[in-house]
C-alpha cells in the first residue's frame, strides 16, 4: 500500500501548533504536528455529513435560510448543508486557519465535491466565536464542528465556545425556532447539562464516523 505524503502545512493562528495535510492516492488526512493519528480523514466523514443533515432538515422548508458552519475541516459538513438547502439559502462557514481554506480550494476540494465553489457558500476567516457575538439573530441553524468537540485538542481558546457564555452567544445568534447542532468525538454529560441550563431542549444523537453504520461512534447534540 502506498504511503501518505505530506503536501502542505498550515499554522493555527495564536499558537505554535501546525496542521499537516497528507495524501495517499485519492485519500487525504489532516494531522496535528507531533500528535498521533488523524484529526480528519476523507474516508471517515459520516458524522460530519450527519451534523448538517440533522440540523438542516429542521429549517430547510423556510425561505431565505441562513446557516453557519463553525469549522470548514475537509468540507463535508458544508457540502451536506448545501445539498440539504434550497437555492435561496446562504451557508456561512467560519474557519480559523487560512491554510485549511486554501487546501479546500486546492487539492483537498474534490473530496467533498468542491463546496466552496457553490455561490451559496461564503467563507468567514477567523474565530467562529467572534462571528456569533457579532450576528445576533443571524442564523436559522448553527453547526459547530470545532476542534474535537467540547473536549478540545488543538486550541485552548475553543473552551470558551463550549462554555455557558459561548453557548449563550450561539443561542442569541439563532433566529426564532433556530437550532444549534454540536459535533463531538464522544459523550459529554456535563455539556448536555450546560445546554439544558440555558433553557434549551436537547436531543443527543449517536452517529457513526463511516457509513453505513461503521467506524467510531460520535455524538451530535441538537438544541433548540
Automatic annotation (TrEMBL):
InterPro entries linked to this entry: SAM-dependent_MTases_sf (IPR029063)
Annotated GO biological process: polyamine biosynthetic process
Taxonomy, superkingdom: Bacteria
Residues spanning the membrane: none
SUPFAM superfamilies registered for this protein in UniProt: S-adenosyl-L-methionine-dependent methyltransferases
Keywords: Polyamine biosynthesis
Name of the protein in its database record: Spermidine synthase
The organism of origin for this protein: Halomonas urmiana
Amino acid at each position: 500500500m502506498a504511503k501518505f505524503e505530506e503536501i502542505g502545512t498550515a499554522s493555527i493562528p495564536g499558537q505554535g501548533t501546525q496542521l499537516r495535510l497528507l495524501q495517499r492516492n485519492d485519500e487525504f488526512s489532516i494531522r496535528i504536528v507531533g500528535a498521533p493519528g488523524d484529526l480528519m480523514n476523507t474516508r471517515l466523514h459520516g458524522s460530519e455529513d450527519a451534523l448538517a443533515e440533522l440540523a438542516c432538515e429542521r429549517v430547510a422548508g423556510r425561505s431565505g435560510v441562513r446557516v453557519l458552519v463553525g469549522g470548514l475541516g475537509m468540507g463535508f459538513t458544508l457540502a451536506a448543508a448545501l445539498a440539504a438547502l434550497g437555492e435561496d439559502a446562504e451557508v456561512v462557514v467560519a474557519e480559523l486557519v487560512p491554510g485549511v481554506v486554501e487546501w479546500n480550494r486546492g487539492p483537498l476540494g474534490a473530496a467533498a465535491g468542491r463546496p466552496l465553489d457553490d455561490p451559496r457558500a461564503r467563507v468567514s476567516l477567523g474565530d467562529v466565536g467572534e462571528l456569533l457575538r457579532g450576528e445576533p439573530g443571524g442564523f436559522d441553524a448553527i453547526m459547530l464542528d470545532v476542534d474535537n468537540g467540547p473536549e478540545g485538542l488543538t486550541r485552548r481558546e475553543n473552551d470558551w465556545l463550549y462554555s455557558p457564555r459561548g453557548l449563550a452567544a450561539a443561542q442569541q445568534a439563532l433566529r426564532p425556532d433556530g437550532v444549534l447542532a454540536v459535533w463531538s468525538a464522544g459523550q459529554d454529560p456535563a455539556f448536555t447539562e450546560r445546554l439544558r441550563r440555558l433553557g434549551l431542549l436537547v436531543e443527543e444523537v449517536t452517529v457513526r464516523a463511516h457509513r453505513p453504520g461503521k467506524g467510531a461512534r460520535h455524538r451530535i447534540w441538537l438544541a433548540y
